[in-house]
Specification:
The structure is a single chain. This protein is of the alpha/beta class. It folds into three domains: 271 residues, 2-enoyl-CoA Hydratase, Chain A, domain 1 (Alpha-Beta Complex); 177 residues, Rossmann fold (3-Layer(aba) Sandwich), CATH 3.40.50.720; 156 residues, N-(1-d-carboxylethyl)-l-norvaline Dehydrogenase, domain 2, CATH 1.10.1040. It contains 29 helices and 19 strands. It has an eight-stranded mixed sheet with strand order 12-11-10-13-14-15-16-17. The chain has a six-stranded mixed sheet with strand order 1-2-3-4-6-9, sandwiched between helices. Helix 1 links the parallel strand 2 and strand 3. The longest helix has 20 residues. 50% of the residues are buried. The site of 1,4-dihydronicotinamide adenine dinucleotide has 23 residues, from helix 14 and helix 17.
Length: 678
């Protein structure tokens, strides 16, 4: 068999070098073919054992990013999954069994299956060039390591460290990797890395062992005391019925303590079961959706270098700082010099705190500058407007701005509720106007809606998408329409919470119903987090524009009048202390239909948005809600959850709710189309 993915050479010292270069992709992943080829090579090496074996990557991006996730989606039975995993395990066992020194030579990253391969080598050496990332992030896909990683990580690092890596999915950088024993040695440059790998072959040494304290945790009499602590830790983060994988990791360790062949078999059985759970299927789907969002844009367009932000308030200042942190030259403008100066000072202080590397920090700080009068606006590739949410003010700023823009500069607005058509009327070249709708807080929310007005041209869309990618956001193109995508869908959900509250359901119970479904926070808490003034403003605009009735908004208006705006003012629907809502200990059952009221009215709005083609693909509504509002990824998104529940059942339930609570629950006509086979 000729290898298509691996190149194999032997040097003068008799060391075999195996470099992985999987064709057709920029990063290496362990596909079936990659593993089959490796297996064949290892069989040969077992017959003619070399002085040593060094495994590395021929790709500039890094070592191995994990298993090939697309192959997961083709698994149709637990048996098939088990066979695939057992086959992978046997390749790594063959590697581990080679009697010569084996060294994984890691650059960039070794993640998931990639790190598992490295764990099957006797040693690991790595290049610390600031990029190194090692980890076992499988739990994020609803599974756990399956190629022996649950066993070898515990043996190498000890239970505390290995379980922490597997249960959290967190990755570690060079220093930490060296400190915990995940890598044996670190090199500072690529030549040094090769020399180091050779050294570990030429001067054989014993493999790393965890400390006695770490080993003791896996002793049979100790495990029963450690297990409940681990379970409690996991339980405080995720529920077993939502995310079974971390619970399975604890179960495997507590039963087998990484010992003997049984541990590998149990690992395979466990992961094979997990593969077929809705959680894993949905998380894999969401991962692929994220990749699809990332793959957008047009790389043939000149990349933006300079960004000018107008409006140094909550959003503008954060957007400016993010752009500067990601390497763009940024100027910040406001109507008042004092506001810009204060915003810049505050952002510089945040950068000082967040960016540890002094050179990177100083460079980022230097890239964010004040430009109160907008004198440099003519040099900007992109101008982002984030001023007060009033169409006439935005229009007058645009009209004054446009003649000073570079010919090919694009103009982006961060408006959350004004349709683009109402703003582009102020422009000579309305094709250059696009919505770049960030979510608050800018640094944490992964999504940016890229809003296309009727006159926005393709190049402007692509430029905006490219910019979003440049600053590591997930761009979601959507049509200009009231509330765009995410806010529009959230409005009926948050208003339904208000309806329930006005019927007398305690807010704690309303939030619990949503969190029981998997929402990270309930709708009442979310309203406080967004700000009640913002909720009222956006909610009214969206409802009015779509001709929908609202709940009684007087109580909300009163809170706002009293300065109780939510989290930002320390009080809103909840009282907030140290950024935490103060919940009363409310007893009483959750009304049986409450969860459906909240979540089905939300799905119904998704169906309407799809019917109105606010986005081009059904899955993008799911992606938008997951990355823009925190909708639980393990559900795969609202439309996916509806499909899993059964579309007919959703419609029937909406009809029941409509009969009980009113026409706001009437199933949208779009359900009909959704029910047709694709
Ligand atoms: P903000 O009130 O915190 O900041 C607005 C800033 O614009 C103020 O510093 C103000 O001095 C400045 N400004 C007003 N008129 C100006 C003018 N003519 N020229 C220059 N600067 C001017 O408002 P925030 O919350 O940052 O919102 C800004 C925009 O972002 C709005 O369009 C809003 O709808 C949108 N947005 C807000 C979100 C939020 O959660 N706050 C989320 C997403 C979008």
């Amino acid at each position: 068999m000729t290898a298509t993915c691996w190149t194999r050479t032997q040097d003068n010292d008799g060391i075999v070098w195996l470099l992985l270069d999987r064709p057709g992709s920029s990063a290496n992943a362990l596909s079936r073919v990659v593993l089959e080829e490796l297996d064949a090579i290892l069989r040969e090496l077992a017959l003619a054992v070399p002085r040593g074996l060094i495994i590395g990557s021929a790709k500039a991006s890094g070592f191995i990013a994990g298993a090939d996730i697309k192959e997961f989606t083709t698994l149709s039975s637990v048996d098939e999954a088990r066979r695939l995993v057992r086959a992978g395990q046997s390749v790594f066992e063959r590697l581990e069994a080679l009697p010569c020194p084996t060294v994984a030579m890691i650059e960039g990253f070794a993640l998931g299956g990639g790190l598992e391969l490295a764990l099957a080598c006797r040693h690991r050496v790595a290049l610390d060039d600031g990029r190194l990332t090692l980890g076992l992030p499988e739990v994020m896909l609803g599974i756990h390591p399956g190629f022996g990683g649950t066993v070898r990580s515990v043996r190498l690092l000890g239970a505390a460290t290995a379980l922490d890596l597997m249960l959290t999915g967190r990755s570690v950088r060079a220093d930490k990797a060296r400190q915990i024993g995940l890598v044996d040695a670190i090199a500072r440059d690529p030549d040094g890395l090769k020399a180091l790998a050779c050294d570990f072959v030429m001067k054989p040494r014993a493999p790393h062992r965890p400390s006695l304290a770490q080993r003791a945790l896996s002793w049979a009499p100790v495990r029963p005391f450690v297990k409940p602590r681990l379970l409690a830790q996991v339980r405080s983060k995720v529920r077993k019925e939502h995310y079974p994988a971390p619970y399975a990791v604890i179960e495997l360790w507590s039963k087998y303590a990484a010992k003997a062949a049984k541990a590998y078999e149990a690992e395979a059985d466990s992961i094979a079961q997990l593969f077929l759970t809705p959680t894993a299927r949905n998380l894999v789907r969401v991962f692929l959706l994220q990749d699809a969002l990332k793959a957008q844009g047009d790389s043939s367009l000149a990349a933006a270098r300079r960004v000018h932000v107008i409006g140094a308030g909550v959003m503008g200042a954060d957007i400016a700082a993010l752009c500067a942190t990601r390497g763009l030259e940024v100027t910040l403008q406001d109507r008042d010099a004092a506001i810009v100066t204060a915003a810049i000072q505050q952002q510089h202080a945040k950068m000082t705190e967040r960016i540890k590397d002094p050179a990177r920090r100083d460079a980022a700080i230097a890239r964010l500058r004040a430009d109160v009068d907008g004198t440099t606006v003519g040099e900007a590739d992109v101008v982002i407007e984030a001023i007060v949410e009033r169409a006439e003010v935005k229009r007058s700023v645009f009209a004054a701005l446009e003649p000073r823009l570079k010919d090919d500069a694009i103009l982006a607005t961060n408006t959350s509720s004004i349709q683009l058509e109402a703003l582009s009327s102020a422009l000579q070249h309305p094709a250059r106007l696009v919505g770049l709708h960030f979510f608050n807080p800018v640094a944490l929310m992964p999504l940016v809606e890229i809003v296309r007005g009727t006159l926005t041209d393709e190049t402007t869309m692509n430029r905006a998408i490219n910019l979003a990618r440049r600053i590591d956001k997930l761009p979601l193109p959507c049509r200009s329409s009231p509330g765009f995508l995410v806010n529009r869908i959230l409005v009926p959900y948050m208003f339904e919470a208000m309806h329930a509250a006005q019927e007398g359901v305690p807010k704690e119970i309303i939030d619990r119903a949503a969190m029981d479904f998997g929402m990270p926070v309930g709708p009442v808490e979310l309203s406080d987090m967004v700000g009640l003034d913002v909720c009222l403003h956006v909610g009214t605009i969206v409802s009015n524009a779509l001709g929908k009735a609202t709940p009684n908004l007087a109580p909300l208006e009163e809170l706002i009048k009293a300065g109780k705006l939510g989290k930002k003012s320390g009080a809103g629907l909840y009282r907030w202390i140290s950024d935490k809502p103060q919940r009363a200990a409310v007893r009483g059952a959750t009304p049986a239909d409450l969860q459906d009221r909240l979540l089905l009215i939300l799905v119904n709005e998704c169906v309407a948005a799809l019917r109105e083609t606010l986005v081009e693909r059904e899955e993008w509504i799911d992606a938008g809600m997951i990355f823009g509002s925190g909708y639980p990824p393990f559900r795969g998104g609202p439309l996916q959850a509806a499909r899993e529940r059964g579309l007919d059942d959703c419609v029937r339930r909406l009809q029941e709710l409509a009969a009980r609570y009113g026409s706001r629950f009437t199933p949208d006509p779009g359900w009909e189309r959704l029910r047709q086979p694709n």
